[in-house]
Design a protein that fits this description.
Number of helices: 3
Helix content: 10-25%
Structural class: alpha+beta
Number of strands: 9
Radius of gyration: 17 Å
Largest sheet: 9 strands, antiparallel
CATH architecture of the largest domain: 2-Layer Sandwich
Distance between the termini: 21 Å
Length: 193
């Protein structure tokens, strides 16, 4: 995952650079599986969610020179710890669905407990109307976890924030991690040929 912070006036240019320069350079790599580009609804973030076959070395990827015009991304290697979907598999498609990306920051000693809590809370979350899929990832350095959730609408997402354990007053991650989230739309998807 590559997380970019960007000024709203530059979000479209960054997305164009990712789609036209970065992703084409990835597709020629034999380990490439898929990539999707997400733009935040508030205009200040962009992230790419890419999947690679095992034994892939991310350090082998070239960095397009056009990216020198933007802040460098926060690039992370992540591992899926839990995933549920209302369909047979998590399907990432461009369109009006809302993607929620929650970032949990913690000390590495707390990550194993966060993996347990997020796995147990996933079943309860999936009963929320409008939640299409939720996937938790842990960073390999132990400092972070991410929840990638797909929703039918922003209103459906906002409804879960009123439920016990998911609201900011007494969340299930309390005492383990800090949390920040943003809402996005998927604007581009590319899969290996």
């Amino acid at each position: 995952m590559d997380l970019f912070a960007v000024a709203p006036k530059h979000q479209a240019a960054l997305i164009e650079a990712i789609i036209e320069e970065q992703i084409p350079s990835w597709t020629s790599n034999p380990y490439f599986k898929s990539a999707s580009v997400h733009k935040s609804l508030d205009g200040v973030r962009v992230f790419t969610y890419s999947q690679w076959n095992p034994k892939f070395d991310h350090r082998s990827l070239p960095r397009p020179t056009v990216f020198n015009e933007f802040f460098p991304p926060d690039s992370l290697l992540l591992e899926v710890t839990a995933s549920r979907s209302v369909s047979a598999e998590v399907e990432i498609v461009p369109g009006e669905r809302v993607t929620h990306l929650a970032e949990f920051r913690m000390i590495p000693a707390n990550q194993p407990e966060m993996v347990k809590r997020t796995s147990s809370e996933l079943e309860r979350a999936m009963s929320s109307p409008g939640l299409l899929s939720a996937t938790f990832h842990r960073s390999l350095d132990g400092n972070r976890m991410f929840n990638y959730g797909q929703w039918e609408s922003q209103e459906a997402f906002e409804a879960i924030l009123k439920q016990p354990g998911f609201n900011p007053d007494k969340p299930y991650w309390e005492g383990l991690a800090g949390n920040e989230f943003h809402l996005y739309n998927v604007v581009h998807v590319k899969t290996a040929a």
